[in-house]
Amino acid sequence: MNSCPFQRARSPEQKAERRAQILEAAAMFFAEQRFAAISLAAIARQSGVTKAALYRYFPSKEALFLALYLNELDDMVVAPLAQGEPLWAAISELLIGRPLFCRLTSILHTVLEHNLDEPQARDFKQALLAQFVHLAGRLENEFGLEGDQAIRFLMQTQQSVIGCWAVSQPAPVVAAVIDAPPLDVFQVVFADALRSQLRALQAAL
């Protein structure tokens, strides 16, 4: 996306397009940088708005990235699941194919949910719950899970994504150290770790 001179969005359609541009710019920066290194000023420039205008859409960097997280979740809960596969395999492949969502999930509780006021936190959690309930309904219909089982599996899946992503993304100096035996025992491949975790979760239902 190329930055463009700022023109104020006035119609609902223009505002929706501008909001989408801001989220796209945030996703682009997050693919290349750590959350802490990303500035709202850079996102504003990339999306063609002033920083003041960006704040009219998102009151903080955390709010912006929570909106990006919900956007990714919106797409994920309606995405087709692999047919003929067990639950753990279908959900694993769904997540492995969405690294942006997994990376956002890995910092959800420790970073993104900080710096929110109570109404913002409540709105986010209510939106998150609505999507969990929607996806749980799909798991009930497509895999025969009962309501409590489906929600429990999704909550534990979220926890597995956080843990597997964290241990599979070592700092560069650590990655170099564990690149060869005997320390290569500490290497973790996210996809393999997640499949193993979700398979165990399904077995425990």
Short structural description:
The chain has 205 residues and is mostly helical. The protein is built from 11 helices and no strands.
Structural class: mainly alpha
Compute the number of strand runs. 0
Overall geometry comes to globular
Unreliable stretches (pLDDT < 50, length at least 5) are 1-5
Strand percentage lies at: under 5%
- Count of alpha/pi helices: 11
- Residue share in helix: 55-70%
N-end to C-end Cα span: 45 Å
Largest sheet properties: none
Task: Spell out the helices and strands N to C.
Answer: HHHHHHHHHHH
Radius of gyration: 19 Å
Q: Give the averaged pLDDT, no decimals.
A: 93
Task: Describe the protein's topology.
Layout: H1 12-30, H2 40-47, H3 51-57, H4 61-78, H5 87-96, H6 99-106, H7 108-112, H8 118-143, H9 147-168, H10 172-177, H11 190-203
Helix pairs in contact: 1-2, 1-4, 4-6, 4-8, 5-11, 6-9, 8-9, 9-11
Overall description:
The chain is mostly helical. 70% of the residues lie in helices and 0% in strands. The protein has helices at 12-30, 40-47, 51-57, 61-78, 87-96, 99-106, 108-112, 118-143, 147-168, 172-177, 190-203. The longest helix is centred in the middle third of the chain and has 26 residues, at 118-143.
Descriptors:
single chain, 205 residues, mainly alpha, globular, disordered N terminus
